Amino acid sequence: MVRPTHASVDLDALVANYHAVERQLSASSVNPTPRIIAVIKANAYGHGATRVGLALERAAGSGSGSAPILACADIEEGIELRQAGIASQILIFGALGVSDLAGVFDHNLTPTVSSPSAAQALEVAAASRGVRLGVHLKIDTGMHRFGLRYDNLGATLPPVVRATHLDIEAVYTHFATAERDEYGLFNAQITRFETVRTDAQALGLDNVWWHAANSAALLRDRRTWYDAVRPGLLLYGVVPPPIETELALRPAMSVRSRLVAVKGLRPGETAGYGARFVARRPMRVAVVPAGYADG
Ligand SMILES: *Cc1c(COP(=O)(O)O)cnc(C)c1O
Prior knowledge:
alpha/beta, eight-stranded parallel barrel
């Protein structure tokens, strides 16, 4: 039996959201206008990575903006996008240790160098193929997930910069608290990233571009725009709470179902596991046929 529960994805809404972000960037006085790295990792946040990727590629080609760069989490996701016919540049965010590096070369993907050992592995692989590989370098300014520590670059960066088969195209960082109200870590991360920018020449980082902003940072603080921004949530029509925006965004996904049960609750009664929902007044609750098994 197929249950009457459907998620629909509105690709037109998604493309409209992309253009809304594009307009926001170009309406500002920031010059040149930052590029967009459209984040379609994790199957485009559940919206279907290949269809979303193709729609964004077409949308950008038809407008005035430059081609988007698409970003996903790992090499396998990148290969899937290529196999669907996507030609845009594809940036891989994640660690490379779990994947077969051949995919980077066979499918023209742009990996992130997040550690000296990743640089070494890519250097060896590029050298053995006799090619120069474009990479983005990730700096850990406080998220403590991926990246070279911002305060230890004097030790870790020289071998990466010296790798003759790697071409560092861009340097980036990622914010841990961009959407929250307390500004402490967010500001500290910006300051640390700025220090790396100031020291770029001395560190051997010439002719690179810089990026940092996820959706929350993009909305909150123009200082984070640099040469490119990396929205994920905004493309799907989601504004990360508690941030508010006047950007005209439309939800890209809607979920519809049919009610299979309806019942009354008295004030103080609870519904469901853990009794976490408490009725404050007499009310009716309904059940839709969807749960764990549906993701
Ligand atoms: C997921 C991710 C983004 C996008 O974040 P949103 O909050 O969805 O805009 C940007 N950069 C990196 C490195 C990410 O992993």
